[in-house]
Amino acid sequence: MSIETDIKQPTFRNPYHRLIVNLMFTSNWVANAQMHLLKPYDLTLQQYNVLRILRGQYPNPVKVSDITERMLDKMSNASRLVDKLVLKKLVQRTECPSDRRAVDVVITSKGLDLLKKLDVVQADYEVELNNKLTDEEALQLSQLLDRLRR
Amino acid sequence: MSIETDIKQPTFRNPYHRLIVNLMFTSNWVANAQMHLLKPYDLTLQQYNVLRILRGQYPNPVKVSDITERMLDKMSNASRLVDKLVLKKLVQRTECPSDRRAVDVVITSKGLDLLKKLDVVQADYEVELNNKLTDEEALQLSQLLDRLRR
DNA sequence: GCAAATATAATGTTATTACATTTGATGTAA
DNA sequence: TTACATCAAATGTAATAACATTATATTTGC
């Protein structure tokens, strides 16, 4: 369905106005779906993102400040997100030896196991997208989004 | 900059994985910019969206349930958003005569004036996007997003 | 070396979100 | 009509987000 039909707005001022609204609407739509996939595993989207950042560097530690920098939503509080993950024993927090201000965070094996399970769920979701856009179209869409942020 | 550089993740599993991450990152990027544009006017993005929905129907009233349906973020509480807007005298709330369960909401002239000011701000922002994507590309991007949600 | 500036994470606070529940009105079927 | 289900909005709530502030540690300029 076109964005006009989805939000019942007949016209937009120009293609950029339409794009902004469409982008936010579609992103909410995806985020919602992702949230519901994560719900049975008692993870929020942000917690999931942090875990994936940590897995990307495993077995190296990542500082809280690096997590903040790399999060999709910069404004979330990485410190408190890490708190939650520590409580669930999905990550481990240790003082950084070379800089006592910083805190090193590493994903635990429990965290890696959880991510492995979620990889399957995520792959299923990606297959659904595959039915809607070809690989080339998905790539093209990504490239246009990159250019929008330039 | 490509999404890989932006979030310092070297590779994605496939074009769909890359797309999902890119979509959320870009949407947050736009939402952040929009939020900062709205801040001097003491409006949240959601409140702004509600006002624009109401202007779209002006001078006809819109029910709270219709607002919920048409909001970009379905989960926000339209009832409480309307509350905030009533406090600022940007909208007016009256009992729907044909259905006493429902509530009619109409934008006030103060609300319309505010939106008019914001139209200028918004247009400036759209000009920035214009430097990054052509009209055709913006349209194409919108269409790909539409297809993603099909 | 030392004071000031900056960096890093944690914490405080208020508003908002994501639901669940409640209150009241309307529709529907016996 | 009278139950009973459904619908619309409001309200309760716990968690989270969006900042601002604080507490330490490090860096920089003198």
UniProtKB/TrEMBL annotation, chains A, B:
GO BP, sorted A to Z: response to stress
InterPro entries: HTH_MarR-typ, MarR/SlyA-like, WH-like_DNA-bd_sf, WH_DNA-bd_sf
Protein name (database record): Transcriptional regulator, MarR family
Species of the source: Fibrisoma limi BUZ 3
Domain called HTH marR-type: residue spans: 13-150
One Pfam family in the UniProt entry: MarR
Superkingdom, taxonomy of origin: Bacteria
Single GO molecular function: DNA-binding transcription factor activity
